[in-house]
Amino acid sequence: MQRTIRPLIYGTLCCWLGLSACEKEQAEPSKVDEDLQPYFERFDVEARARGLDFSLEMEELEADILGIDQDGVLGQCHYSDQAPNIVEVDDQFWARATDLEKEYVVFHELGHCVLGKDHNDDRNTDGTCSSIMQSGLTSCRVTYNSSNRESYLDELFE
Ligand SMILES: [Zn+2]
């Protein structure tokens, strides 16, 4: 919905105001919801910190925050050879999640949509999940905090 409505609104504003600066921005309308953009940028920063560059893959992505009807599903990655990959994050989750919870879900979906990773339900000896790419369908415990974030990101990008 947002994807189709937004360019129309911008287009209309440009006509009314007649601003050239506005037209410049219009040349590359973002296909990523603005609330998701900081997390996409972080993903890019973390990839580059590890000598990786996914800017091409990320440029082709679309991303939205919307209602996902499936119970317990916080995010989705739709991928296809014929269309851009699309990341979707559930709006109710987004409204109540902490910064790290948002990062976790966005990075998980980018793990699918950008890194092409499948689920990984390996667990550590203490029962915690070994990977951000855990499916949520097993009993491994999810812990993602400021002290273990780096090692989870190392695992994600390795
Ligand atoms: Zn997944």
Can you give keywords for this protein?
158 residues; mainly alpha; Collagenase (Catalytic Domain); 7 helices; globular; disordered N terminus
Brief characterization of the structure:
The chain has helices spanning 2-17, 20-26, 37-49, 55-59, 91-96, 99-113, 149-157, and strands at residues 62-66, 75-78, 86-90. The chain has 158 residues and is mainly alpha-helical.
Description:
With 158 residues, the chain is mainly alpha-helical. The protein has two domains: 1-30, no CATH class; 31-157, Collagenase (Catalytic Domain) (3-Layer(aba) Sandwich). The protein is built from seven helices and three strands. Strands 1-3-2 form a three-stranded mixed beta sheet. A hairpin with a 7-residue loop joins strand 2 (75-78) and strand 3. 22% of the residues are buried.
SSE class? mainly alpha
CATH top level label of the largest domain: Alpha Beta
Strand percentage: 5-15%
Q: Determine the CATH topology of the largest domain.
A: Collagenase (Catalytic Domain)
Give the spatial strand order of the biggest sheet: 1-3-2
Distance between the termini: 35 Å
Unreliable sequence segments = 1-28
Assembly status: single chain
The best one-word shape is: globular
| Extended strand count | 3
Helix run count: 7
Question: Could you give the topology of this structure?
Answer:
Blueprint lengths: L1 H16 L2 H7 L10 H13 L5 H5 L2 E5 L8 E4 L7 E5 H6 L2 H15 L35 H9 L1
Parallel strand pairs: 1-3
Antiparallel strand pairs: 2-3
The structure holds zinc ion.
